[in-house]
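Reading group handout, session on sequence-to-structure problems. Before we discuss, look at one worked example. The prompt was deliberately terse, the way you'd type it at a terminal:

> structure Glycerol-3-phosphate dehydrogenase [NAD(+)]

The input record follows.
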Amino acid sequence: MATVFETAPFATPFSPSISSKQTFLLPLRCHSNSRSLSVSQPQQPDPDPKHRRRVVRLAWEKLLRWSRFWSSKAKTDVLERTNKVVVLGGGSFGTAMAAHVANRKAQLEVQMLVRDPQVCFSINERHCNRKYFPDHRLPENVVATTDAKSALLGADYCLHAVPVQFSSSFLESVADYVDPGLPFISLSKGLELNTLRMMAQIIPQALRNPRQPFVALSGPSFALELMNKLPTAMVVASKDKKLANRVQQLLASSHLRISTSSDVTGVEIAGALKNVLAIAAGIVEGMNLGNNSMAALVSQGCSEIRWLATKMGAKPTTITGLSGTGDIMLTCFVNLSRNRTVGVRLGSGEKLEDILNSMNQVAEGVSTAGAVIALAQKYKVKMPVLTAVARIIDNELTPQKAVFELMSLPQVEEV
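And the output record:
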């Protein structure tokens, strides 16, 4: 019995170096009782642009139907059952999240626990945070207090917006008023300088409750744009999948898209170290080193964050997602970033002390940078860019010297 093979075409309309008439003798399909070789001709693209547009439109409509299907299945009873949310901290992002949650349901009580009596007065009497958002009116159901006990009493969820370096002492002072089942949604990004702890460790330890429900909220999000209801996407991360889903339902809206993750370590470490990288990016901008060096520095910094995060048990996909690459791009390249601003001023020749004294908000990257060297040593990871930032902040290097040393490093194979 004679057997010949029909070969699949290697040529495509996008492979000009290979003729579509060539015959390749790689057997893919076997035909019996045939005495000649035949080659399948490649399928030509549809020349009709109207047909192509119709295919794209149908695919898009299918995607929208799929989205509406899952939206219709999403539960809304979490928001319906929630009566009170407390926000710890009266900073810019805490205020923006308080306004966002309050807008989700008019009957929802949103209490902000603030330290500054003047901020408390402006929120209650003028319905604005005069320190951070004097031109934005807060919803009527946002109220402020300086009394921790009344703020936490009866709360269904807690949004923690206290800077990382002050979180432990603050939480210890209010621990007696915290219900052991109250879910904490951490908005704070950074590492505790002396202990290298993340918020997932700080909160339960400070509250003396290892089972305190915890969720980390992170992603590319400036408070001002959230206040202006511009489209934003963020991630909630928790080891408790059901809790992450509940927080997703509580926060998700028409202008805030919320994804869920179980990789708490990846979300937190990326959120912390991107602030240090933003200082480096700002230094490049302040020194006018150009776009080439900016791209090289940020990409190297992203690799360093990924190396460390994966050594700490994080998933690489988390570092390339919203809470990783997304947040890094926003913080490194946009002028609204506090950490980038610190870097720009350092690169322009200002002293760190003068920069910090002139700011009314905390740049977490300054404190977190001090933890980078310790983490790099602990996990045996080389992190030249982020380590250079720490040394600049500690006055061990000038920005100019740091650039010279980084450019003098041995040429290595990219990993």
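Points for discussion. First: The two ends are 54 Å apart (CA to CA). Second: Strands lie at 3-6, 29-32, 84-88, 109-113, 142-145, 157-160, 184-186, 214-218, 232-237, 256-261.
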